[in-house]
Amino acid sequence: xxxxxxxxAPKLSPKDFASDQDVRWCPGCGDYSILKQVQTVMPDLxxxxxxxxxxxxxxxxxxxxxxxxxxxxxxxxGRATAIATGLKxxxxxxxxxxxxGDGDSLSIGGNHFIHLLRRNLDVNILLFNNQIYGLxxxxxxxxxxxxxxxxxxxxxSIDHPFNPAALSLGADATFVARSMDRDPKHLQNxxxxxxxxxxxxxxxxxxxxxxxxxxxxxxxxxxSSKKLETLMVEDGQPLLFGExxxxxxxxxxxxPKVVDxxxxxxxxxxxxxxxxxxxxxxxxxxxxxxxxxxxxxxxxFGVFYxxxxxxxxxxxxxxxxxxxxxxxxxxxxxxxxxxxTWTIQ
Amino acid sequence: xxxxxITKESVVIRFAGDSxxxxxxxxxxxxxxxxxxxxxxxxxxxFPAEIRAPLGTTAGVSGFQIHFxxxxxxxPGDECDxxxxxxAAALKVNIKQLKKGGTIIVNTDGFxxxxxxxxxxxxxxxxxxxxxxxxxxxxxxxxTKITRATLSESGLSTKEIDRSKNMFVxxxxxxxxxxxxxxxxxxxxxxxxxxxxxxxxxxxLLRAGYNYGETTxxxxxxxxxxxxxxxxxxxxxxxxxxxxxYGLIAASHQAELPIFLGTYPITPASDILHxxxxxKNFGVRTFQAEDEIAGICAAIGAAYxxxxxxxxxxxxxxxxxxxxxxxxxxxxxxLVIVNVQRGGPSTGLPTxxxxxxxxxxxxGRNGECPVVVIAASTPSDCFYQAFEAxxxxxxxxxxxxxxxxxxxxxxxxxWKFPQTSDLPKINIEFAKSITDxxxxxxxSRDEKLTRPWAxxxxxxxxxxxxxxxxxxxxxxxSYDPExxxxxxxxxxxxxxxxxxxIGNQTIDQGAESGELLILGWGSTYGAxxxxxxxxxEEGYSVSHSHLKYINPMPHNLGDLxxxxxxxxxxxMNSGQLIKIIRDKYLIDAQGLNKVQGMPFxxxxxxxxxxxxxx
Lengths: 345, 614
Fold this sequence. Notes:
The structure holds 2 protein chains of 2 kinds.
Chain A: H1 31-41, E1 52-56, E2 71-74, H2 80-90, E3 95-101, H3 102-108, H4 110-119, E4 124-129, H5 164-170, E5 175-180, H6 184-196, E6 201-206, H7 218-221, H8 223-229, E7 230-232, E8 240-241, E9 247-252, E10 255-260, H9 278-285, E11 299-306, H10 312-327, H11 332-337, E12 342-344
Parallel strand pairs in A: 1-2, 1-3, 3-4, 4-6, 5-6, 7-11
Antiparallel strand pairs in A: 5-11, 8-9, 9-10
Helix pairs in contact in A: 1-6, 3-4
Chain B: E1 4-7, E2 10-18, H1 23-37, E3 40-46, E4 61-69, E5 80-85, H2 88-94, E6 98-107, H3 113-118, E7 137-141, H4 143-150, H5 158-163, H6 165-176, H7 182-191, H8 196-215, E8 221-224, E9 233-239, H9 240-255, E10 259-263, H10 270-278, E11 285-288, H11 292-304, E12 308-313, H12 315-331, E13 335-341, H13 358-363, E14 372-375, H14 381-396, E15 399-405, H15 406-410, E16 412-415, E17 464-466, H16 481-497, E18 514-521, H17 525-537, E19 542-547, E20 549-551, H18 557-561, E21 564-571, H19 577-585, E22 590-593, H20 602-612
């Protein structure tokens, strides 16, 4: 975050962030909602429009920058993270957003993804996870569940999927959150928190691909099952879920357990969410059970973990300042001449 | 005792030993001393790919060749006059580089049974005893023994003592060539500032080597190599990678824009990263990325933001960067891609030199994706071509590939360096903010066909760019068939237009027309220049022209080539430039090709010319 709020600037509206290009995702795609929530949040961030840059890779989600009336780059597959790194490192005052998908960031771009997280540049990653390859028309992705039947896995996928939140924590990410396309308020809230975090914010967004993987997250997004199957975590609040918020999570040693508040437990007994607790954040990110299995844990949404750690660009620019302060601004003639010269008369 | 003193015009010395014997340092010290004395010179380090190959084996032999003289020196020399060998393996690997009748200075301790076995030489075939060196003047010295005796009271361990034996050899060579040891003594003092015992030991040994020459009767003669007649001015010694880094910084200074280097370590290009990373007080940002792809992509991101985006690598790394070079071409952003070529394909010969990535530079991308390609010809020329690569990329909003290679990257020469005031300004203007509400056109163009550089943060210029084909002027995505052809042609024309801003091709040596022209590019410059010089003296009708700009080529090149009955193109590959020349100008150029990971010898070029002019 670099909140240089210009009080004199006229307040922008979501419409100011919509470009003149026709949005070309499939009708019913979850991407529409994400675009809308981002455009809704932008004016509240108090920055000039020209300071925002959206950089994407390749895939359905990566069309996103074309629809934002900001600076933007639709780059190549998997590399948005690397391009954003160069931009943010050299222009730290900009607000840089990476738009990527599960294939783009976790398959072809997996390497840049983890290295961006460990370097901790102050950028925001919106990872649209639809658990499928949409643009190439329906192959399994690195987040597709085992056994998934797709065009490239007619007998079922034998790949074990990534859990993006756990992977990110493994890469020492300083902000890890999950949200979903079907919960506009939650998504807006998480995006705001991601923006406010100084450091790389990883926001995984469950996004429905209604053409190739329709209903992948239905159990978490549909009204009928949402309350029972999702765990909306809030900093300082107990881990509550269930139809009437009558279920909760306790920690038995390091083992999370579901308890019934109608059956001897009160909210005071529950695990209180602390966004800055790394150990608990890791346990929370590992709530990744198959919801069809008996005794599974609910799927958490919200900010799992955040940490203040110096950013790469601050370190880099501090070194530049340090060398200027210590050795003076570079003198080109001195550099070229070096230490040993001789004169031919 | 007195020795005969013989004056020589030029001398080639090759220092060879185990990787840990300090041969590179010995060679560099001799080089600096010769340069300071006023000789012209050229050097060639020849080291193994392994950092510490097994001791005493041929795989671990490290060599350093220096050619210095009172005349103009353009190459490190075909054969050496003096070969210094620290062990049997070093002799085995390097003996073929020694002139018949040349001098070998041998550390006899390196020829014991163990060393012979490590070098795969049978005991009975010990070259010091079997007469195989009868052609040469062999000076046998037990350097190890003398070193240990000299430093017996130094308080250093045997291991530390043995490590300094290269100083004895250096002292001896200084005596042979009448050199002052002051520079090296100063170097030792400063290197071991905090380890006085080691500094003293090294200096003692250096002097011991010198005195050994003076007092023993091993050598009948000493040699003098007078100062060279060089253009008046202030000089320094320079290596190619160092010059390249300075050229980039100089361009950044003259363009008043900061450098962003996104790169990944690779031999033989890493030294550019090492150099640039020191100069953060010039505003240089260096980013050691997780891989080659991230290196170039970060550079593209920085270029988008208004920095001078640079990536440096060698062949295998360039292969990984190709998709991103295509992106930069579509984005029409400035980008400098440096390829310090090595032997290929695949991992190939990492520490050896080759010019085999020219076609990769010209064509190695998907789709029709022309970029500007220029090449450096000598260590100091790396400075000027790096400057030029930045200038072209910024002023034409285009990726530029700069080709260097391992030979000039690690080679050194004296350089009459320029002053900042000698360098042109590189004038760059970013697109200006639009405040009247009109729509910004990111792909509008000027007379060079260059689009504006509109950096994020500029009000009113919000726009989207990307790898998809786009409409001219608006930059909107376009799948229109005719538009794609139009844009493909436009990108090619934009590269071709660079030729309007580079000047004409010139003749380096020889007449403007005649029997034969040698057309070279890149690091073959020195060998060709020396060959042509000699051929002209012998009365041959031969000229030399050296290409810096390979894409686009200078406008007059076709006419220039047609002034000669024959054209010879020597290349350290199987014939790459020749394909372009034949295709473009329909002339029957002849090739001279060497793909041994080693630069051309002058004699190889001379022989080929004589064969063609028979």
